[in-house]
Structures are given as C-alpha cells and as structure tokens.
Amino acid sequence: MKKIDINVILTFCSYKEYGSQEIFDVSLSYGKKDKSARKLLDQSGFFDTLVQICRERGRLPTELVKISTAADWTKNGFEFDIENGKWSFGSWRGQNISWSDNLVKLYSFGMDDDTADCDLNLHAMLGIMAAKNAAKALKKIMSN
Question: Distances in Å between the alpha carbon of 53 and those of 9, 12, 43?
Fold first, then answer.
C-alpha cells in the first residue's frame, strides 16, 4: 500500500479565538488499482475523518461551509476527477455542487450556516477583534 498526503483547510461560519479555519494534513492509503481521486475520497472514510477532526477541535460539522484540499494526485497516478478539490455548503454553496449536496445529506455540512445575510469581511473583522480582546484579557490575568 502507498500513501498520499492531503492538505486540508476547513472553513466554518463560526469563529474561535484563532479564526474560522482549521488546517491540517490527512494521509490516505491506496493500492495499485486505485486510480480515481474521487473514489478514494468517497471510499476511504476521508469525510468521516473530517467529521472526527471537527469534533476533536470543538467544531460543529453543521457549521462547516467549505472544504479545500491540495494533494499531488496526478504525481501519484490518480485521475484528477474531483474538479478543483473544493466543496462548499450553505450560503457558500457553488463548488462541486452535486457532490457537495450529497455530503450535506450524509454529514449535514453547512446546515447551520448563518452567514447568508452577513458581510463576511465584517464577520471576519469581528472575529479578529474578539481574539485581540481575549488576548488582552489573558495577558492582564497572567500579569497579576
């Protein structure tokens, strides 16, 4: 069995003290007969792994609005049959639409997206301001 490393960025409609994204790598095993990136992702438990990582990091899969991936698919002998390697949900919907819609049915991704009527840049700035205020408060507590 060989392995392929996939860089993953999950974007959420909610903000933690460090932002709206979780960034990590996932390794998947594959055999000589595996040639379709799409089949490997669907059959390997890749999306189940993403749900587990959401839970481990205190994130709700229902607040997941975008999955972005990067991997050397063709270098590893795979067809690049996953469009742009991105899936979007909720009000962000627009990439890999039919596959994304199926993932919503299976995992409820994006079901709690509350950004439909939001200015996403303003939303991001509010998250940054909250993180700065939290850092100030923590610094004050630590200095006492």
Answer: 11, 13, 18
